[in-house]
C-alpha cells in the first residue's frame, strides 16, 4: 500500500464520517423533456438548435431522459451508496419566460426529486443556475442586462418558498466564469455572443445575482441550509520570467473577480486596470458590492479538472493558445487576450484534451485555505471524459478510475495540510450532453446508451461505491 506517492496514487487513506461523498449532474445535460409540462425555452435550446454550434447538431431535447427516469436513477444512486446528490434546477421549468408565476408542473418535478432523495437517505444539494437561462431573458440582454440579476432573485425566492425546508445546501450559480466569458466573450457557449464588454458586464451581474439570490433565499427558507456558489477556479503555472505576470492576469480574470466581490466586498484593482480599455465598469452601482457580499456563504464549491501553463507573449511569431481559444473578437480573456500565451501542458490527457494534474487540485485547495482560512470548501465537480468501450457487457474504465483515485488522494493531502474540505461530488453520475461537444464526450461513472437510454455502471462506479462504503481510497479498481 503506497502512501504519499509522487504520482498521487496513494491507497488506504481514510475520510472521516462527516465527509460527504456524492455525485453531480446538470438539468439541461440529463433531463430531456425539453418541451413538456410547460417548460419554456432556454438559451441552450436555442444555441444547440442553431446549425454549427454543437457537434453533430446534438441537442438536450431528450438527453438521458432523467425527467421520466428519475426514480430509477435515484435507486441507482442509492445502490452506489451516494450520500449527496448535486443537481440543478432548470429555471425555464419554474418560470418559462424567466418571470411571472410558478409553473406548477415544473416545480412539482423537483419536489418529487428532492423527496425521493431524502427517502433514500441522500442529501439534496440544489444549484439554482447551471447555464440554462430562459431565452426570453436573453432576448432582453441576458446576463449583460442588470435586470436579469433581479429576475434571478425572484426565481430563487419562488423555489426557496417550496423547497426551502428540505435542501441541504443551496448553490446560486455554477461556474459563472463559463456563463460570462464563454457565453458572452468567446461565444462557444450559449448564447454565443462575442463582446468583451458584455462579458465583463455579465461577470458583475452574475455576482449581483448571487448576492440577491442568497438574500431572497434567506428570507424564505425554514430549515438551516448551507449557502454556496460553485466556481471553476483556474490553476495556472508560470512559464519563464514573464510567467508570474501572466498568472496574475489570469488569476484576476478567472478567480479573484468572483472571489473578492463575494468574500471581500470589492473588485480587484488590478483587474479593473487591466480591463480599462474594454469597459469603465460603470455597470457597478453604489451598494452592489454590499449586496454581493451581504449574505456570507457557508461553503465554497470548487470545480477542478486540469491546470494551465502561461507566459506573457513577446510579440514575435504566432501566439500559443493551448486553451483552445483564438484571438480576435471572440475571447474568454478580455484584458488578457493579446498579452497572455497559453502553452501546451505535458500529458497524459483526457478525451477532452485536458491534462491530468492532481497536484493542481491540492495546490488550489491549499491556496484557497491560506487566503480564506475560516471558509469550508467542497469539491463540487471533478471527473474525466474518456473514450469508453463496452466489452462483454461491462465498461472497464481503468483510466477514469485512476483519475479519480489520484484526485481523491490530492484532496486528502490537502485536508492533511489543514484544509476544511467537507465533501466531494464526482462529475458526473451519468454520461450526458457535454455542451458544445454534444454526446461525443463521456464523463459518467454510469454509461448511458443513447439509443436505448439504458444505464450501465462502469468499473469506476464500483470503485467509487467501495470508497464510500469503506471511507478509504481503494488501491485497485473494483469490478462493477
UniProtKB/TrEMBL annotation:
An MF annotation (GO) of this entry: beta-glucosidase activity
Reaction(s) catalysed by this chain's protein: Hydrolysis of terminal, non-reducing beta-D-glucosyl residues with release of beta-D-glucose
GO cellular component: cytosol
Active site: 175 (proton donor), 381 (nucleophile)
Ranges in coiled-coil conformation: none
Pfam family, one: Glyco_hydro_1
InterPro entries in UniProt: GH, GH_1_N_CS, Glyco_hydro_1, Glyco_hydro_1_beta-glucosidase
Top-tier EC class: hydrolase
Protein residues bound to substrate: 29, 130, 174, 305, 427, 434-435
E.C. code: 3.2.1.21
Example GO biological process: cellulose catabolic process
Keywords, comma-separated and alphabetical: Carbohydrate metabolism, Cellulose degradation, Glycosidase, Hydrolase, Polysaccharide degradation
Family: Belongs to the glycosyl hydrolase 1 family.
NCBIfam families assigned: BGL
Protein name: Beta-glucosidase
Amino acid at each position: 500500500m503506497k502512501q504519499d506517492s509522487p504520482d498521487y496514487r496513494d491507497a488506504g487513506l481514510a475520510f472521516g464520517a462527516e465527509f460527504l461523498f456524492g455525485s453531480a449532474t446538470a438539468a439541461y445535460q440529463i433531463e430531456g423533456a425539453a418541451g413538456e409540462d410547460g417548460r419554456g425555452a432556454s438559451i441552450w435550446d436555442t444555441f444547440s438548435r442553431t446549425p454549427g454550434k454543437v457537434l453533430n447538431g446534438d441537442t438536450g431535447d431528450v438527453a438521458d431522459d432523467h425527467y421520466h427516469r428519475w426514480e430509477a436513477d435515484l435507486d441507482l444512486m442509492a445502490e452506489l451508496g451516494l450520500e449527496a446528490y448535486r443537481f440543478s434546477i432548470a429555471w425555464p421549468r419554474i418560470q418559462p419566460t424567466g418571470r411571472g408565476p410558478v409553473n406548477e408542473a415544473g416545480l412539482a418535478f423537483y419536489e418529487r426529486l428532492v423527496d425521493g432523495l431524502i427517502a433514500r437517505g441522500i442529501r439534496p444539494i440544489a444549484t439554482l443556475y447551471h447555464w440554462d437561462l430562459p431565452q426570453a431573458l436573453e432576448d432582453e440582454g441576458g446576463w449583460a442586462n442588470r435586470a436579469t440579476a433581479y429576475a434571478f432573485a425572484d426565481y430563487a425566492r419562488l423555489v426557496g418558498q417550496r423547497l426551502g425546508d428540505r435542501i441541504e445546501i443551496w448553490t446560486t450559480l455554477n461556474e459563472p466564469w463559463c456563463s460570462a466569458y464563454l457565453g458572452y466573450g468567446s461565444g462557444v457557449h450559449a448564447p454565443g455572443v462575442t463582446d468583451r464588454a458584455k462579458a465583463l458586464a455579465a461577470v458583475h451581474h452574475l455576482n449581483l445575482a448571487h448576492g440577491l439570490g442568497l438574500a431572497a433565499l434567506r428570507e424564505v427558507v425554514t430549515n438551516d441550509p448551507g449557502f454556496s456558489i460553485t466556481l471553476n477556479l483556474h490553476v495556472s503555472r508560470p512559464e519563464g520570467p514573464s510567467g508570474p505576470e501572466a498568472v496574475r492576469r489570469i488569476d484576476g480574470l478567472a478567480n479573484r473577480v468572483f472571489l473578492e466581490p463575494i468574500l471581500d466586498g470589492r473588485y480587484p484593482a488590478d483587474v479593473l486596470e487591466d480591463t480599462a480599455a474594454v469597459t469603465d465598469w460603470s455597470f457597478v452601482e453604489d451598494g452592489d458590492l454590499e449586496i454581493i457580499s451581504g449574505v456570507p456563504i457557508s461553503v465554497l464549491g470548487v470545480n477542478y479538472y486540469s491546470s494551465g501553463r502561461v507566459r506573457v507573449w513577446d510579440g514575435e511569431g504566432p501566439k500559443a493558445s493551448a486553451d483552445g481559444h483564438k484571438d480576435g473578437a471572440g475571447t474568454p480573456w478580455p484584458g488578457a487576450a493579446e498579452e497572455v500565451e497559453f502553452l501546451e501542458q505535458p500529458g497524459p490527457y483526457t478525451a477532452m484534451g485536458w491534462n491530468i494534474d492532481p497536484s493542481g487540485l491540492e495546490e488550489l485547495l491549499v491556496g484557497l485555505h491560506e487566503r480564506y482560512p475560516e471558509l469550508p470548501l467542497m469539491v463540487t465537480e471533478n471527473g474525466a471524459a474518456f473514450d469508453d468501450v463496452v466489452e462483454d457487457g461491462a465498461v472497464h474504465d481503468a483510466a477514469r478510475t485512476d483519475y479519480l483515485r489520484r484526485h481523491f488522494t490530492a484532496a486528502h493531502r490537502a485536508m492533511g495540510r489543514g484544509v476544511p474540505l467537507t465533501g466531494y461530488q464526482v462529475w458526473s453520475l451519468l454520461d450526458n450532453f457535454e455542451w458544445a461537444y454534444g454526446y461525443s464526450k463521456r464523463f459518467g461513472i454510469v454509461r448511458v446508451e443513447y439509443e436505448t437510454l439504458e444505464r450501465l455502471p462502469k468499473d469506476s462506479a464500483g470503485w467509487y461505491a467501495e470508497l464510500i462504503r469503506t471511507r478509504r481510497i481503494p488501491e485497485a479498481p473494483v469490478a462493477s
